[in-house]
Amino acid sequence: DVKVTQSSRYLVKRTGEKVFLECVQDMDHENMFWYRQDPGLGLRLIYFSYDVKMKEKGDIPEGYSVSREKKERFSLILESASTNQTSMYLCASGDWVEQYFGPGTRLTVT
Amino acid sequence: GESVGLHLPTLSVQEGDNSIINCAYSNSASDYFIWYKQESGKGPQFIIDIRSNMDKRQGQRVTVLLNKTVKHLSLQIAATQPGDSAVYFCAENSGGSNYKLTFGKGTLLTVNP
């Protein structure tokens, strides 16, 4: 059974904190993705990676960075969390048609 | 910019009925159109895709129809079951040099027993 796991289901952080969201996939996929999901806005791509140490900006990269040191692991970093980054964060791996998603991390920034 | 949207934000059906979820798209250059299902508390799950050179594709209890003339995509679910209750997203792959998957905003399907 294919699997994408995310380090936390729920996370509460304070404004200005540095936040790390971790994602691991066991399918040996080249591509990994980070989305945020907000009511009424659907899923929006933050960053993606097509290989180790490679990354590309998505639609809304501002305020975020990513790290891909190993093929199976893709991290999303909020350098200085802000309240407008309160959201559901979804990690995925796969190709540009079929992607496998993790269960999501609901991040609240207070 | 290009966008993928949905006609109906919510759809309520009786168990056993057929469901039809609609989606409008604006990027005529899209290469693939895809449907995802998201159950409560879970990440989206791939259901079915259709390439732009096709107009119909069938899966298990699901059929996707593509009408390029009016830029319309639909997902038909036969004999809808309570387990089909979820948010359904259409998505498009714009292909070319911009391999990005763009999601619509979702339709909530509720199946009444």
Features of this protein?
heterodimer; A: 110 residues; mainly beta; seven-stranded mixed β-sheet; four-stranded antiparallel β-sheet; 11 strands; 0% helix; 59% strand; globular; B: 113 residues; six-stranded mixed β-sheet; five-stranded antiparallel β-sheet; 53% strand
Largest sheet of chain A: 7 strands, mixed
Shape of chain B: globular
Percentage beta strand of chain A: over 45%
Beta-strand level of the residues of chain B, as a percent range? over 45%
Query: Could you tell me the radius of gyration of chain A in angstroms?
Result: 13 Å
Give, in order, the helices and strands of chain A. EEEEEEEEEEE
Largest interface: A-B, 20 and 18 residues
Helicity level of chain B: under 10%
- Helix-strand makeup class of chain A: mainly beta
Round the mean pLDDT of chain A to the nearest integer and report it.
95
How does the major sheet of chain B shape up?
6 strands, mixed
The poorly predicted ranges of chain A are: none
- In angstroms, what separates the terminal alpha carbons of chain B? 41 Å
How many H/I helical runs of chain B?
Answer: 0
The structural class of chain B is mainly beta
Number of strands of chain B: 11
The gyration radius over C-alpha positions of chain B equals 14 Å
Short description:
The complex is a heterodimer of chains A (110) and B (113). With 110 residues, chain A is mainly β. Helix content of chain A is 0%, strand content 59%.
Describe this structure in words.
The complex is a heterodimer of chains A (110) and B (113). In chain A, 0% of the residues lie in helices and 59% in strands. Chain A is an all-beta fold and 110 residues long. In chain A, strands 2, 4, 5, 6, 9, 10 and 11 form a seven-stranded mixed sheet that branches. In chain A, a hairpin with a 3-residue loop joins strand 4 (31-38) and strand 5. Chain A is globular and about 35 Å long. The termini of chain A are far apart. The mean pLDDT of chain A is 95. Chain B is mainly β. Chain B is globular, with a radius of gyration of 14 Å. Chain B contains no helices and eleven strands. Chain A binds chain B through residues 4, 40-45, 58-59, 90, 92, 96-104, and chain B through 32, 34, 41-46, 49, 89, 93, 99-101, 103-106.
